[in-house]
Design brief:
The structure holds 2 protein chains of 2 kinds. Chain A is an alpha/beta fold. Helices cover about 40% and strands about 15% of the residues of chain A. In chain A, the strands form 6 sheets. Chain A has a 6-stranded parallel beta sheet, sandwiched between helices. A 5-stranded mixed beta sheet of chain A has the order 9-11-10-12-13, with helices on both faces. Chain A has a 4-stranded parallel beta sheet with strand order 14-15-17-16, with helices on both faces. In chain A, strand 10, helix 10 and strand 11 form a beta-alpha-beta unit. In chain A, helix 1 runs parallel beside helix 6, helix 3 packs parallel to helix 4 and helix 16 runs parallel beside helix 18. Chain A is globular and about 75 Å long. Chain B is α/β, with parallel strands linked by helices. In chain B, about 60% of the residues are buried. Chain B is about 40% helix and about 25% strand. In chain B, helix 1 packs across helix 6, helix 4 packs across helix 5 and helix 6 packs antiparallel against helix 7. Chain B starts with a strand and ends with a helix. Classes of the chains: A alpha/beta, B alpha/beta.
């Protein structure tokens, strides 16, 4: 037994390794990315033989893990919540077919959203797919629930969802870790069972009924689950309380602390098994109170399953806000309101409105994330905008280059791979509307391999005409430089076979394929113009340019081999063009806004900003001195 | 003890969180902290909430933080609403906090300590240790409930080995300001 400081995602990873997980897969996505990295770290530390894979997509990751489960191995797959949308196809099917070795699915939700396209609730997908959910509220609980998830999965032979949120995934907690005896399995390998694993519709009906029975049994089990309990303890006599709370996840723990700060003790039922909801437990609790508020995030899941909601408030009646994170401030305000309504006196909130007002009056500008100094995406997008102008349509995609919105180089991002499809859709629509604007789509290497290939084949087949810029920085950068199929290494540093992106593009039938360095502005611009000409020529179609330069954060060697230190000359008139159109964080407007200077603490000497001043006020240092 | 760390992505807020958490755990305190990961590394605003001594929620409510430690002046201002009456604010700043807020902070009994940590880090030849300079400063003023020696031990344990000497110098120079 030892006390360890564990990131929530590390706690989950440790739980997977301690549970003898044989295969762990994932596609990177905040807030989930540290889970697979954690499995790699702990398997090395504890000397376990586990197959770990960064898969090309979440659907791929899910299916690889599913095959492992059917081979008798314990398996797990992790992703962010929108990644579950990609894995939803195999999820719904797998729920019917069941598992052999325990199979744990770990989609990480992001209330806020802090860094996602939606605030969707993965528990609702589990409800629709009919698999049980465990919902941890701390890293320590996540560790315990990971182990329990495998047992539950094997007892009922179906996949189990472990659903943490950002404030669990990225929380750090001192956790008591006991050294569990390694789980010993003797998997026999895949055992054929066509009525299950290759079930045709008539057998699917049978499997569905079987699944419904499993859920009923699980619901009964959950009534006595140690993850559901009442605070204060059930021993205290709370015969009839005006206000009771049912809560889960971080929202529950924050509620506990807010109530403690308000100096109020209310009956609180903590639910760690939100689906299938142990309804008897819930209704027994509801019967004890005049009014119950359900506090969960990011959506209503527990609340929806409560059979009689006459005295129940929550998201459905607007008591709990239906968007945004349930922060301590939000919960304080609504609990204070509810308590006041119930005739309980509450102290005023601790935050000082005068101070808040003064801070607001200072109008501190927001500090959104930006591309790093030296980022090759910035160079590519800056030249692209210079070539096609602000009027062109720029369908974008998901990755670091999404931050191109800051320089208005991205007009849309919807979901993974949509850059290519939206470009096709805009093109086909433009033939009807008569819109003549150029269409230039942007997608990263990892995103392209994830879900850009099928849209590209579709675009070629349907004769779409647009320029596609594949921004190849040789990694999945935003999430921490995980390998893609185009890299030659695996999750645990082993060797991998490289898949060629140019070959893939040609295989889709594209005739115009060029690879170019986005740092070389003039040739890059020339190439973009050629691509556009080609796209609209009689025999034209999709034109692909692959902007090839490694991510500056993870491989600075091309720059250190040829550094170009720069200075901003005395003549700079503070017109701010460079800061707004190029937006390198190392280009800083002086406090009096009279000029721009280089922040040499973060400048990487890439020299790319020289072209960002059309007046010639940014020059190589050697020229300025000489 | 409730501590807010604030800075810009890339300034090492996550590492500073580890240093404090590790030191607190070493002296037997329970730790629960909340970090920013992912996109925040791209130069955006970054915050960490650190709660020592038996919390269940990783989030600190406005007006309840015992200490606000900021590696950047602007981020200090942005996060001022978190400090409680009587708390302590420790900021890397060239010219001190804006007079507009100093008055109210004084009324609330909030102690404000500023230092030019960037200059100290520059002296050591590494802008990357600005965060540790500020931590050393805060510790020596009693803001963390942890001593500089405890932070040094933490830095030694968390490594890497070749960075320890520089990290120690950063903590020490901050403590001497």
């Amino acid at each position: 037994m030892s006390l360890q400081l564990l990131l929530g995602n590390d706690a989950i990873a440790l739980g997977l390794v301690q549970s003898g997980c044989g295969v762990a897969t994932a596609y990177p996505g905040t807030p989930s990315s540290e889970i697979l990295a954690g499995v790699v770290k702990f398997k090395k530390k504890l000397g376990r033989d586990i197959y770990t894979e960064w898969s090309a997509s979440e659907k791929v990751a899910f299916e690889i893990a599913l095959a492992a489960s059917w081979s008798g191995l314990r398996a797990a797959t992790a992703m962010k919540q929108v990644g579950l949308n990609v894995a939803a196809d195999p999820l719904f099917s797998a729920a019917y077919m069941g598992v052999v070795g325990g199979f744990v699915i770990i989609p990480c939700d992001d209330p806020g959203p802090l860094s996602s396209q939606t605030e969707q609730d993965s528990r609702l997908l589990a409800l629709a797919a009919k698999i049980p959910v465990l919902d941890p509220s701390t890293p320590a609980e996540a560790l315990a629930m990971t182990r329990a998830a495998f047992e539950l999965s094997e007892r009922y032979r179906l996949p189990v969802m472990l659903r943490p949120t950002t404030r669990v995934c990225h929380a750090v907690q001192s956790v008591e870790v006991n050294n569990v005896a390694p789980y010993l399995a003797h998997p026999a390998g895949f055992k054929k069972d066509p009525q299950r694993f290759a079930a045709t519709p008539v057998f699917r009906l049978k499997l569905h009924r079987e699944l419904n029975d499993k859920l009923q049994a699980i619901e009964t089990d959950f009534i006595s689950s140690p993850f559901n309990y009442q605070l204060p303890s059930a021993q205290e006599a709370i015969s009839h309380s005006k206000l009771g709370i049912i809560a889960s996840g971080v929202a529950c723990t924050t509620t506990q602390e807010v109530l403690a700060d308000l100096g109020v003790s209310l009956p609180l039922l903590k639910i760690g098994t939100p689906y299938p909801l142990p309804r008897k437990l819930i209704m027994d609790f509801v019967a004890q109170c005049e009014r119950v508020i359900v506090i969960e995030e990011p959506d209503a899941c527990i609340e929806l399953q409560i059979p009689d909601r006459t005295c129940v408030s929550g998201r459905l009646d607007g008591t709990i806000p239906n968007a945004g994170e349930l922060t301590p401030e939000v919960l304080t305000a609504l609990l204070a309101e509810a308590l006041t309504q119930a005739g309980v006196a509450v102290p005023p909130p601790p935050d000082d409105s005068a101070l808040a007002g003064l801070v607001q009056a200072l109008k501190i500008p927001p500090r959104p994330p930006r591309l790093c100094p030296g980022c090759s995406h910035r160079s590519a997008m800056y030249t692209m905008k210079h070539t096609f102008g602000p009027q062109a349509i720029y369908p974008g995609d998901i990755g670091c280059y999404s931050l191109g919105t800051n320089i208005r180089a991205i007009d849309t991002f919807v979901d993974m791979g949509a850059a290519v499809t939206m470009a096709s859709g805009f093109y086909q629509s433009s033939k009807i509307t008569g819109d003549k604007r150029p269409i230039v789509a942007l997608i990263g290497d990892s995103t392209f391999l994830h879900s850009g290939i099928v849209p590209l084949a579709n675009a070629v087949h349907t004769g779409a005409r647009f320029v596609l810029l594949i921004l190849d920085n040789h990694t999945t950068a935003m999430t921490g430089a995980q390998p893609t199929p185009a890299n030659d290494y695996t999750a645990d540093g082993g060797l991998a076979t490289r898949v060629s992106i140019p070959d893939m593009v040609r295989a889709c039938g594209v005739s115009f394929v060029r690879v170019a360095d986005p740092y070389a502005h003039a040739p890059f611009e020339q190439l973009l113009k050629e691509a556009q000409t080609y796209a609209h020529s009689p025999a034209g179609g999709v034109a692909v340019i692959i902007a090839d330069r490694p991510c500056v954060l993870y491989d600075r060697s091309p720059i250190t081999a040829n550094p170009i230190p720069v200075v901003v000359t005395e003549e700079c008139d503070g017109c701010r063009y460079c800061v707004e159109a190029f937006e390198c964080p190392a280009l800083v407007l002086s406090p009096d806004r009279s000029r721009v200077d280089i922040d040499y603490r973060i400048c990487v000497d890439c020299g790319q900003c020289i072209d960002a001043c059309y007046k010639g006020f940014i020059v190589p240092k050697e020229i300025a001195i000489g | 003890m409730k501590i807010i760390l604030a800075g810009i992505g890339g300034q090492g807020v996550v590492f500073a969180t580890k240093i404090i958490s590790h030191a607190a755990m070493a002296r037997g305190e329970s730790v629960l902290a909340s970090e920013n990961h992912g996109m925040s590394q791209r130069g955006g605003s970054v915050q960490a909430h650190i709660k020592l001594g038996g919390s269940v929620s990783p989030l600190i409510r406005r007006g309840t933080a015992d200490a606000l430690i900021a590696f950047d002046h602007t981020e200090a201002i942005r996060n001022l609403p978190f400090i409680r009456a009587g708390g302590g604010v420790y900021v890397n700043s060239l010219n001190g906090l804006d007079p507009a807020v100093m008055g109210r902070l004084q009324e609330l009994g909030v102690s404000v300590f500023t230092l030019n940590a960037d200059a100290c880090a520059k002296e050591l030849g590494s802008p990357a240790v600005t965060n540790l300079v500020v931590l050393g400063f805060a510790a020596s003023h009693g803001g963390l409930g942890l001593s500089v020696d405890e932070l040094k031990e933490s830095a030694r344990a968390l490594g890497p080995a070749k960075a320890v000497e520089l990290n120690w110098k950063a903590l020490e120079i901050g403590a001497s300001q």
